[in-house]
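Reviewers of the previous submission asked for a worked example of the structure-prediction workflow described in the proposal, so we include one complete record here. The input consisted solely of the amino acid sequence. No template or homolog information was supplied to the procedure at any stage.
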Amino acid sequence: MVAGWIGATSVFANLPGGGTGTGGNVTLTTSSGTTTLSNGIISIPITQSNANITHIYYTFNNTGSNQTLDLVAGNPNTGKLYWETGGFGTGTFTYSVVTDPATNGGNYAEVDLLSTSATAGNMDVHFSMLRGSPGFYVTLICTHGTAASSIGEMRTNIYAGSIFNWMSVDNQRTRQMMPVSGATQDVIPGAPVEAYLWTNGFRQGQYEDKYSYSANWGDQRVWGWSSVTNSSLGFTGKNVGLWDVSASVEYLTGGPMKRELMSHMGNTILYMFEGSHYGGGTDSGFAANETWTKVYGPYFVYCNNIPSTVTDPVQASTALYADAQAQATAPHPCPPSTSGSADIFPACLTPPSSARPPIPTTTACPISSNTSSGPDPTSPTPPAL
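From that input alone, the workflow returned the following structure tokens.
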């Protein structure tokens, strides 16, 4: 294990299952068109008009005293979590509260941002947060409208902050990346616009393109970025990570062999609900007046840390990634079922049964609107992480 490389003290900040369920109350506050969910560890301001998250504040202690960092600060593309809608909704959202934490002792909050279109269909975004959780959950619900239509590219995009320098897509593609600013590149004639040649920095003379970091959905559960110290490059990291964690991909279009973008240059973290980069990954040809609703998620945006004393960049990034991977193999708690939409998608992750301990029937919950409560037991065993 990575912890054994570093010393007798475990470096894992991981609390498998999304947190301890203890700690400060979850709070929900609203001011000037912005709603903030917070639990003392994570705080996310959500813009009601567009469902964007403009900051991801993370409070942690890996130095002997608490500190709070905005994990999307300093990105030249304006750090945030934002949406591409695939043609559903109108791009303008209406905000409502699904579960007010004041009604459950501060254990859980859920908010709804709904963009409606009578013709194309509705795009319904839910953010939720649990007490003691080092992250938050994202769920998307699409409902078809009256017109013949299709879903184009639909995704969330996190532009992580300038403190992040190490990207991990999987155990094979984990590396120190070029900085989000200050690097220069040349376009390669005849190549896709996203392919270029670095002209300065430690990767000068090397080629780069975002498609090198694609992955098959059936193999993928965790991807994101670490902030680690690399003294050879004069970079001082914070030993924190920011990750997308997916327990299941059965709600995604294209099947397990569908390939899509995950993370790439520019400190980007994508979650491609529907994508067209490799074909076969978008839904098209819906007839007029088809009636259906599809739930994507929930997936978990996870923040973690290891002690600041770990200064080797490979050891630090490996520990942070291994810790994030543990989130995908642990069942996450479900809040008590409430009225309305929370009955459709409780804020929990349910990994494939072969990759998790048995879940008591009192806490098991569906991960999508499918009638099946889990994978077909006759299906091939999902790949291990």
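The chain has one domain: 2-178+207-355. We consider this example representative of the routine output the project will generate in years two and three.
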